[in-house]
Amino acid sequence: MTGRSDQDWRWLSTEAMAKAMGITVQAFNKQVREKGWRAEHHRAGKANPRGLWRPAGRGFVYHYRLLPAHLQVQWQARHQPAPPDPTADRKARRQVIARDEAWRFYDARTDAQKAVACRRLDILLKVEEAVMQGKRKEDALTEIGLEHGEGRSTIWKWYQLVAGIAKEDWLPHLINHHCGRRKTVEITPEAWEAFKTLYLREEEPTAAECHLRLKDLAAEHGWTIPSLKTMQRKIAREIDHRVIVLKRKGQEAYERLYPAERRDKSSLHALEVLNYDGHKLDLFVEWLKGSVSRAFLLAFQDVYSGMIVSWRLDTCENALGFRLAYCDCVTTHGIANIVSADNTMAAADKTNTGQSRYRRRFKIRDDDPVGVFQLIGTEVRFTKVRHGQSKPIERAFGTLARYISKAPECAGAYTGNNPLNKPANYGKRAIPLADLVPIVQREIDRFNNEPALNLANGQGRSRAEVFAESYAKAPIRTAHGMPEEKRRLLLLAAEGVTCRKPTGEVELHGNRYWHEALVGLIGKKVVLRFDPDKLHQPVHVYRLDGSFVCTAPVIVNSGYLSADDANTHGRAVRRWNKAGRDLAAVETTMSMRDVVALTPEPEAPTKPEAKVVRPMFGTAGALALKPAPADAAEPAATFDFAAFARGAALLRPVE
């Protein structure tokens, strides 16, 4: 039975109650008589707004609270009208605001205060239950109060706190609003400002130190200050913790208060993005030249799987070491689409990252050379400076460096991870580089192949398994399709190496390299590209203008008494000699006799004639000019050639 008003849905006729309970009218009336539901003190009215029955016409109506609990919920869900729109009814809006404020106040209380409120609500609900069972409310208050050790008047006061409030909102109104003593000792405003200035400094003085100095200022200026404990409570109450961290610990510590970004790697694939960096190992290492220093591990890590794909050891972080490590990755796995690193001088060197976008290292020039990464088709991106969270490899170094530096083979060479944590055997020995390399390889293999429980894409698998699975499906640019000329760009370039006489061989770090193409460059300087860790492999020779000459293999020293080496060298010399003769034979197809036959006969020289003859006066000359007698004429054989020659010798051309 429902009526026209919004409250009629709460009241049901006898027939409606019996139907809702699933019993007959006679059975319902029997329950009313047995439980005393229609007693006078349960009659609803102005004096008893929470009554259970009231007259209606010729019969009675009963409140739906008499239904079993599960039937109450069903009836309420089926017949309760929709709550009024708070924006349409000003009174309803105030009620909603008051309800939300009560729950907000309750949520901010402690667990102990909430437990007290829950106990009070439990007592009130038990009183309500007893009333519904037919007891008088006064008797229920007394009985339940004695059971829980509460006075009747106390429980009645709790009822007054929830008067006119829906039962589902009783809990926040039953919480204790007493907040303890609020009175504080007075403090002069200037003293409080001086204390904050003393306390909020990057030197991080203690509150006790600042309070001691504040006493001196208070004595000088007549300020009123409370005790140290009161000042500490005032700091915690009035100064935001963020301000304390920013002013005392600095900007970086303040930034750490904000949650770190967590980037999803599931959209990547193997070798799509690599990040690289260097880490200083806590080891003394003896290098090939005999020097001793700590080693740096330069490594490239696949971002998708977390696997270390390549690495090198060096005396420091440098562009060459990173380039050679990436060369190993290109040779073994392929070319990455993107590599990321921080903006240090070694990682952002122009030879590797020149003309990359967002590069903020060194002076940017228009004529900067294109970096090696750019030349082979790998994009370079830079992470946030001094921000290890931007580089996943920093977390890998935390594990790798510990296992490498503390390996059993490195006993005595471990330096400790800080100056205050040196081992007892500090400086006892330095591990040779040749012994360290297999240790590093073993620990990196262990890191790659052990199950990674915290790996986002791992699901309990190892980093190597995740990498291999994605590598088999992803579009990888392998080194097989990469021109050999590009691969050489990743190697070390040594300029100014002279091709020595008389063979043209070049020498590098005690090793000799030679190729027949170097014979034509005897005495000239060339550029060598090579891997400093693999000096027994061939080196690539370039002219100074950058043009490629040849790939020269190493000349291996032979045993002093080795006959096999001597025979091998002799055969090589004989092949060289034969090749020279064959080449010479190809070059000279014409014999010397053919050349002589083609040589023309020399022409007779033409004697020049003098245009003007100077006369000479004298005996010899006069005799020469005298005509001979007619009868004295003789054949040409009697001509005086000697006299003629003497006269001709005296002739001179006119200048």
Structure summary:
This protein is α+β, with helices and mostly antiparallel strands and 655 residues long.
Give structural notes.
- The protein is α+β, with helices and mostly antiparallel strands.
- The chain has 24 helices and 16 strands.
- Strands 4, 5, 6, 7, 8 and 9 form a six-stranded mixed beta sheet that branches. A four-stranded antiparallel beta sheet has the order 10-13-14-15. A three-stranded antiparallel beta sheet has the order 1-3-2.
- A hairpin with a 5-residue loop joins strand 5 (292-302) and strand 6.
- Helix 5 (111-132) packs across helix 6, helix 9 runs antiparallel to helix 10 (207-221) and helix 17 packs across helix 18.
- The longest helix has 25 residues, at 563-587.
- The N and C termini lie far apart (158 Å).
- Mean pLDDT is 81; it is low at 1-6.
Give the CA-CA distance, first to last residue.
Answer: 158 Å
Number of strands: 16
Q: Could you list the spans in which at least 5 consecutive residues all have pLDDT below 50?
A: 1-6
Q: Identify the quaternary structure here.
A: single chain
* Number of helical stretches of at least 4 residues: 24
Give the topology, please.
Blueprint: E1 11-13, H1 14-21, H2 25-35, E2 53-56, E3 59-63, H3 69-79, H4 90-107, H5 111-132, H6 137-148, H7 152-161, H8 170-173, H9 189-199, H10 207-221, H11 228-238, H12 241-249, H13 251-255, E4 273-286, E5 292-302, E6 308-314, H14 319-332, E7 338-341, H15 350-353, H16 372-375, E8 379-382, H17 393-405, E9 431-432, H18 433-449, H19 463-473, H20 484-488, E10 492-498, E11 506-508, E12 511-513, E13 525-530, E14 539-542, E15 548-552, E16 554-555, H21 563-587, H22 592-597, H23 619-625, H24 641-649
Parallel strand pairs: 4-7, 4-9, 7-8
Antiparallel strand pairs: 1-3, 2-3, 4-5, 5-6, 10-13, 11-12, 12-16, 13-14, 14-15
Helix pairs in contact: 1-2, 5-6, 9-10, 17-18
